[in-house]
Amino acid sequence: MATHSAKSRNIAKLTASITRSPVDVDELSTSYHESFAVEIGKIGPKELKKALADSEIITRMLREYPKEMTDIINNLLAGRTDDAREAATRIGLTEQAFKRQGGGMLWWFMIGVAAGVIIVAAATQKQ
Length: 127
What we know:
- 52% of the residues lie in helices and 17% in strands.
- The chain is α+β, with helices and mostly antiparallel strands.
- It has a domain at 43-124.
């Protein structure tokens, strides 16, 4: 009799989604959301070094290109991914640029973090 054992994979799946404002469709509130999932394996010193590089790159880009970064995030939140990608490419916010600077592991995750930081800062800022 043959036995089979399943190997467990040390992989976590990071999932994020953006939900659009609801619209009425035949008197039913309907909303649309896009989502993406990234499978992340075991994290070690090499991955942490890349994550640190990513966060430093994002921080620098937020300082150097605040308008463009805001536009990118707003385009992403509105579902205009082509516009967001085009603006990101114009300012060098690409996976290739991240890799050249020692980052690249958590590109989309860091974009999400940056979006969250901007949104929270804007929402809590006193006028």
